[in-house]
Write a structure and sequence with these properties.
- The chain crosses the membrane at residues 21-43, 289-308, 340-364, 384-403.
- Keywords: Cell membrane, Membrane, Transmembrane, Transmembrane helix.
- InterPro entries: ABC3_permease_C, MacB_PCD, Macrolide_Exporter_MacB.
- Residues 20-247 form the MacB-like periplasmic core domain.
- The protein contains 14 helices and 15 strands.
- The protein is α+β, with helices and mostly antiparallel strands and 422 residues long.
- Strand 2 and strand 3 (73-79) form a beta hairpin.
- Helix 1 (2-15) crosses helix 2 (17-45) and helix 2 packs across helix 11 (332-364).
- The radius of gyration is 29 Å and the shape is elongated.
- The two termini are 26 Å apart.
Length: 422
C-alpha cells in the first residue's frame, strides 16, 4: 500500500509540475534558512577537534580590580599570573586548568633559518595542560614537555600550513625556525585548526615561559594578559567551580594592600562566550534561545502556511477521486495517511534540496557568515554530527504535517456523495 502511495505521489509530481516545483522550492528554502542557523549554532557551540570538551569547559577570560577601600573600579582586563597561580591553577573542581597568553592582534613572522621562506603566523603562548584540554591531531612529534616549559626552552608546535610553507613537509620535528628573529626548535606539527575553534586556534604554539614579559601585570598581580580555561571534573558543574574560585579569590584579596579582585559573573560557558564574548555584565542565555526559537518558528510557519494553501488547492481537484476511495471502504484515516505520505515525498525532496542549498549558501556567503574575530573560518566535516541532519529531517516531518495534515483532514470530512459529484 505504501509503495502504491509513493508511485501515485511521483505521478502527481509529473501531472502538476508548477505546483510541485513551488512546493519543493518552498520547503527547500525554509529548510535552507533553518539549517544555516543550526549549522552556525553547532560549529560555535558543539564540540569538535580540537575543542572536543566544550560542554565541560568553563572560561575565566577577564578580571576586575577595585580599590580596596573605596571600591572604585581600577581596571578590567586579562588575568595576572599571581592570581592565576594562586586562585585558578589549584582549583579542585576542575580536571584540567590551563593558562593562555593570546597574541590576538599580532602576527609574528616565522621563517626558515636562511630567511628565504616566511609565514606570518598567529601565536598562542600556553602551558602543558593546554594539550590535555584540547585534543589536537599531531602529524609529527609531540607537545613541548613539562621540563621544557618549566625551563623556558624555546620549543614550538606549528600547524601543518606553517610546516609545509617553511619546510615543504609536515615532518619538521627537530628543525629550527626563526619567530620574530628568535630561534625556536619545532617539537610537533598539528593539523590546521578551524578558526571556529577560537580558544585553541593558532598557527604556532609556544610555552609562555619563553616570553620575557609573561610575568608582567599590575594592580598587585590581579590584572595581566592571561586567560584561563578549566575542564570540569565529572560530577561537578559551573556553580561548584565558581564557589571554589570565589573562596580562593577572597583568600587572595586578603593578602593585598590596595586592591581587591572581582571576577563578576565568571566563569562563562561556551554558549555564553559565543553569544556575549565574555561581556562583564551577566546575560540571560534563555532569552537568546527564546529569540532564536521565535525566528526558527517563523521560518518554519510562513512557508508551511503557503504550502498548506497549495496542498488544499490540489486536494480540491482530487475530491472526486478520494470520494470514490471512501465509497469502496477507505476510512478517513486511510485518506489522511495517503495524502500525508504523498506530500512527504515532496517534503523530503525539498528537505534534501534544502540541505544542499544550506551548504551552498554557507559557501556563497562565507565572507559574511564564516567570519570570526580571528578572521575567515572554514567548515570541516568534523564540526558536524548526526544531530544536524536529524534536525533537517525533523523539520521536513513538521513541515509535512503542517502543510498537508489540515487540508487532508478537511477533505476527508467531505460527504461521500458530495465528493463523488464534485
Amino acid at each position: 500500500m505504501i509503495k502504491h502511495y509513493f508511485k501515485q505521489a511521483l505521478r502527481l509530481l509529473k501531472e502538476n509540475k508548477l505546483l510541485s516545483v513551488i512546493s519543493i522550492l518552498g520547503t527547500a528554502l525554509a529548510i535552507c534558512m533553518i539549517m544555516v542557523i543550526v549549522i552556525l549554532y553547532v560549529v560555535n557551540t558543539a564540540g569538535f577537534r580540537p575543542e572536543v570538551n566544550r560542554e565541560r569547559t568553563c572560561y575565566f577570560t577577564n578580571i576586575m580590580s577595585l580599590g580596596k577601600e573605596d571600591g572604585r573600579r581600577m581596571s578590567y582586563s586579562g588575568i595576572g599570573l599571581p592570581l592565576l597561580e594562586t586562585c585558578y591553577y589549584p582549583l579542585q573542581s576542575a580536571e584540567v586548568v590551563t593558562g593562555v597568553l593570546r597574541k590576538r592582534w599580532d602576527k609574528l613572522p616565522a621563517s626558515t633559518m636562511d630567511g628565504l621562506r616566511r609565514y606570518n603566523s598567529q601565536v598562542i603562548l600556553t602551558d602543558t595542560a593546554f594539550w590535555q584540554l584540547f585534543k589536537f591531531d599531531f602529524l609529527d612529534g609531540a607537545p613541548f614537555a613539562p621540563a621544557a616549559f618549566m625551563s623556558g626552552i624555546r620549543e614550538a608546535v606549528v600547524s601543518e600550513s606553517v610546516a609545509r610553507t617553511l619546510f615543504g613537509t609536515v615532518q619538521a620535528t627537530g628543525k629550527e625556525m626563526k619567530l620574530d628573529f628568535t630561534v625556536f626548535r619545532i617539537c610537533g606539527v598539528v593539523k590546521d585548526v578551524s578558526r571556529f575553534a577560537n580558544k585553541a586556534w593558532a598557527e604556532v604554539w609556544l610555552p609562555y615561559t619563553t616570553d620575557p614579559g609573561y610575568r608582567q601585570g599590575w594592580c598587585e598581580g590581579i590584572n595581566g594578559n592571561f586567560q584561563c580555561y578549566a575542564l570540569l571534573k565529572e560530577g561537578k558543574n559551573r556553580e561548584d567551580l565558581r564557589r571554589e574560585a570565589e573562596a580562593r579569590l577572597a583568600s587572595f584579596n586578603s593578602t593585598l594592600s590596595d586592591y581587591k579582585a572581582d571576577m563578576l559573573h565568571l566563569p562563562t560557558t561556551q554558549v555564553e562566550e559565543w553569544l556575549y564574548g565574555g561581556n562583564e555584565k551577566p546575560q540571560d542565555v534563555s532569552r537568546a534561545y527564546l529569540r532564536y526559537g521565535v525566528v526558527l518558528f517563523i521560518l518554519l510557519l510562513v512557508p508551511a502556511l503557503n504550502l498548506s494553501s497549495i496542498t488544499f488547492s490540489r486536494m480540491r481537484k482530487r475530491v472526486a477521486e478520494l470520494g470514490v476511495r471512501r465509497a469502496f471502504g477507505a476510512t478517513k484515516r486511510d485518506i489522511v495517511s495517503q495524502v500525508l505520505l504523498e506530500n512527504l515525498v515532496l517534503t523530503l525532496a525539498g528537505g534534501l534540496l534544502g540541505l544542499v542549498l544550506s551548504f551552498f549558501s554557507l559557501w556563497l556567503l562565507r565572507d559574511w557568515l564564516l567570519t570570526t574575530s580571528l578572521g575567515e573560518a572554514r567548515l570541516s566535516a568534523g564540526m558536524f554530527n548526526g544531530y544536524v541532519f536529524l534536525a533537517a529531517f525533523l523539520f521536513c516531518l513538521v513541515m509535512n504535517l503542517m502543510s498537508a495534515g489540515i487540508p487532508a483532514w478537511r477533505v476527508s470530512r467531505v460527504n461521500i456523495t458530495d465528493s463523488i459529484n464534485s
